[in-house]
Write a structure and sequence with these properties.
The chain is an alpha+beta fold and 297 residues long. It has 2 domains: 143 residues, Aminopeptidase (3-Layer(aba) Sandwich), CATH 3.40.630; 121 residues, 3-Layer(aba) Sandwich (Aminopeptidase), CATH 3.40.630.30. The chain contains 8 helices and 13 strands. Strands 1, 2, 3, 4, 5, 6, 7, 8, 9, 10, 11, 12 and 13 form a 13-stranded mixed β-sheet that branches. Helix 1 packs antiparallel against helix 2 and helix 5 crosses helix 6. It is globular.
Length: 297
Amino acid sequence: MTATLRPYRHGRDYEAIGRFLVETYATGGAHVNWMQPRWEYMHFHPLIENVDLDTIGVWVDGGRIVAVAHPEHGPGRAYFQVRPGCEALRPEMLAYAERHLRGLRHGRRVLQVLINDRDTDFQRWASAVGYERLAHSEPMSVLPLGEGPGPIRLPAGFRLISLADDNDLPRLTRLIWRGFDHGDEPPDDGLAERRLMQSAPNYRRDLNIVAVAPDGTFASYCGMWIEPAGRLAYVEPVCTDPAYRRRGLATAAITEGIRRCAAGGAAVACVGSAQPVYLAMGFRPLYTSSLWQRIWT
């Protein structure tokens, strides 16, 4: 392998890396990359303003992308996407991340990296240069859709709609703000953030499901993406207003979103979580990536 490093250029590389992720993602085994929807979600998330895209490193071999090292929502945490058979690049990628992707925490330089718990080679490399494993981890769970999702149950008076039916941005923004426990009322720029996220190329309002309370309040929300080539449904994000929790609303919204993705050809649903709400629906943990950290004094 004669892979060479080049700097990321958004106009040239954004879609090419998306195709690379479609080609290389597999819902099993020790080798895992991001799904393309997460790459897209990163670029259309409001926190992209904290990301210096020029810090992304791209390795190519014969004109083909074989590896990418990048942040997600800002400096200090690195992610590595590698084409199968090119895993030997990971030490070089880690060294690159230490030069370009480090952040500052409490005045000290730090880098955190996500390493699959099955990837013992990468764990050894990281440990040898001073990384320590932290308690934080990112699980991935999957639900095969061969038999379709389960039944949808809603409390009396509640109903499910998609954003294709009613894309009420003020109500949606308030739900997401409250649903992720940010406070009671969203800031004034919340609508602009919603518009940015909905401008993603593969965002589909008909796959984004809202549980509506009897008084018209948006009570629970499930975002959903479909990746047709891999026949994948990707659940992101999910939240419920604190006033409406523990009523099964999130489960109903997720189930409806999955049902629509299955009708669109998805064979498996994936979610970056192992919370009980997903396990109760039949999702099963596939793998976990743990956070490893190095601090420079």
